[in-house]
Amino acid sequence: MMHNSSCCRRLGGEGSLRRRPKCATILLGCFAFLFGCNPLWAQAPTDSEDFRQASEAMRNGNLNQAAEGFASVIKQNPTFAEAHFNLGLVREEQGRHQEAIASFQKALSLKSGLRGANLFLGVAEYRLNQLDKAIAAVRQETIAYPKDAGALMWLGVIELAKDRPEEAADVLDKAAKIVPNSVDILYHRGQAHLLVSKNSYAKMFKADPQSWRVRQVLAQANAEAEHHMDAIAEYLAAIKLAPTQPGLHEELGSEYRNAEKPQEAEAAFQRELEIDPYNVLARYKLGVLAVERNDGAKAKAFIEAALRQKPGLPHADYNLGRAEMQIGNDIAAADHLQRATATESDPEVLQQAWFQLGIVYRRLHRMSEAQQAMATFQKLKNEEAENSQQKLKKFQVQRDQDASQPANSPPHPN
């Protein structure tokens, strides 16, 4: 029997950002993200050694020493833009935002194209909640350096602070294309898209509270929360408003199946195919239901038809292997189950694939392979049980620690 973690589960209010998003609070960390771990380097004829020492202090986190060093360099050479810039970085790191802004502005007046100056000017202004000025400055950086993922990220962060998630999502999508695996970019991008989604649903509810789409969204929310009977009620309400809307009966069927109502699920999937004969998921799910009812011939027909429409459906080899077993085609079943054990990513289905493969091997009198398959199944099952025990122990330890703390104590850190 397929588990609820399989593909046959369902397929997958008003809100806006009311406070500034949490983002990197250490400027030098952001600086390293943009330029590597070294501050901007520049050589001046008379003060290069002082500049080098100040930069070294900056790298080592000796901010007071770095500030004194850069101030000394500036005193000797007031037109040295990079020294003003680095002094601004130090002041920003020290939380002296107004002084940082003055240093960045001075650096830009001396060298308008100095990389990073507009960005960090905008960040300092963001810290002081001067959001319009911050956006203007950071946007200048993105215009000058359109492939700078860090600048795009900060522009998105500030757009979020201004409650403009659509604009934020746009620039954060661009940043994610440049640096796909940045956790910071992905976090803010996710926040932006979440707000876009919430705003869209809020407008939908306001525009037409009685729309079938509203009922569908409520059904999907209940399905995500595994409130399957509530989801079924909402899908039925949606279908009453839009009885021939493609997709609704397929989603309803998935919820009936999750609620262990296979007859109702089958009827819903069949109705979906009457409305939309090309719905591959409804066809495939009918095949899985047939597997669960030990109707191998029917299951094989549905699953193979679905695979002709869309190859590579999740758990297809496992389900076809089960169907072939049910009609006595053990060699074909072994082929499918072998592929399932090599490719399956769902831990529960992988366990079952090894178990069923062991049974098929026994039928084929391949006893050593059967023993190996059953041993692998038992190993995976033991690992699952051990992981569950570890999670339970961790939960119990955390619960005991929380219970032992006085009521006015701060919560124990995770």
Helix and strand arrangement:
Blueprint: H1 27-35, H2 48-59, H3 63-76, H4 81-93, H5 97-110, H6 117-127, H7 131-144, H8 149-161, H9 165-178, H10 183-207, H11 212-224, H12 228-241, H13 248-258, H14 262-275, H15 280-292, H16 296-309, H17 316-326, H18 330-343, H19 347-363, H20 367-404
Helix pairs in contact: 2-3, 3-4, 4-5, 4-6, 5-6, 6-7, 7-8, 8-9, 8-10, 9-10, 11-12, 12-13, 13-14, 13-15, 14-15, 15-16, 15-17, 16-17, 17-18, 17-19, 18-19, 19-20
What is the gist of this entry?
This protein is mostly helical. The protein contains 20 helices and no strands.
Q: What would the principal axes of the Cα set say about the shape?
A: elongated
Distance separating the two termini: 37 Å
> What order do the SSEs take from the amino end to the carboxyl end, as H and E?
HHHHHHHHHHHHHHHHHHHH
Q: Over all CA atoms, what is the radius of gyration?
A: 30 Å
What is the CATH architecture assignment of the domain at 27-203? Alpha Horseshoe
- The poorly predicted ranges are 1-47, 406-414
Largest sheet: none
Structural class: mainly alpha
Total DSSP E strands:
0
* The level-1 CATH class of the domain at 27-203: Mainly Alpha
Total helical elements? 20
CATH fold-level name of the domain at 27-203: Serine Threonine Protein Phosphatase 5, Tetratricopeptide repeat
> What name goes with the CATH superfamily of the domain at 27-203?
Tetratricopeptide repeat domain
**Which whole number gives the mean pLDDT?**
86
Roughly what percent helix? over 70%
Strand content: under 5%
